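User: I'm writing a short report section on ligand binding and want a predicted complex to refer to. Could you take this sequence and shikimate-3-phosphate and write out the structure as tokens? A short remark afterwards would be nice.
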Amino acid sequence: MLKGVNLYLIGMMGAGKTTVGRELAKQLSYGFLDADNVIEQATKQSINQLFALEGEAGFRQIETDILAQICAFTKLVISTGGGVILQQKNWSYLRHGLIVWLDVPVELLYTRLAEDTTRPLLQDVDLKQKLRSLFEQRQPLYNQADLRISISEEETPTKIATRVLEAIPTVLK
Ligand SMILES: Nc1ncnc2c1ncn2[C@@H]1O[C@H](COP(=O)(O)OP(=O)(O)O)[C@@H](O)[C@H]1O
Ligand SMILES: O=C(O)C1=C[C@@H](OP(=O)(O)O)[C@@H](O)[C@H](O)C1
Ligand SMILES: [Mg+2]
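Assistant: Sure. The structure tokens for the complex follow:
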């Protein structure tokens, strides 16, 4: 159906990009890459360490460099980090493939991320407030995806992956 074209998952932290991406790759018989994971392997640093060492700006540069390399490959599901949409340049890489936005309400993100310590932007802040403000800033950018999958209440990753696959034919030219 996709003829080898890559599928890029975008959306807020906690939307399930990493979890659903793995499942989608299985269902599509595609390879799977999580961009944050590739960054961690390439730099031998955790995302937390990278933010501490390089700042967010340094992390964004690495993220762009990694995306530039990943997009040269085909037959991949790529789960991006939630902030990938912030850099205009990244869109030129994402547009090599089909871009799917997992749109999950802040309330649900909050319940998923309340105990999380792996996302530097969410530490030592009012979590709900921070998620709200990030969503407000980023929503217009996520909205540039080819496909939006709205997840209003908890569904299994398998179910969500199936919904994505069912929706893809509606946006293929
Ligand atoms: N469909 C789902 N149902 C229940 N929990 C989920 C679902 N998708 C993700 N999660 C959980 O939410 C958290 C964030 O998921 P993750 O895939 O890391 O999101 P992202 O990569 O978009 O930040 C994880 O603890 C994960 O297990
Ligand atoms: O939204 C963001 O700015 C970020 C999202 C994270 O990935 P997930 O979206 O997979 O949590 C990770 O790239 C980093 O902590 C920054
Ligand atoms: Mg992730």
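A remark for your report: Residues 7-170 form a domain with the Rossmann fold fold (CATH 3.40.50.300). DSSP finds seven helices and five strands in the chain.
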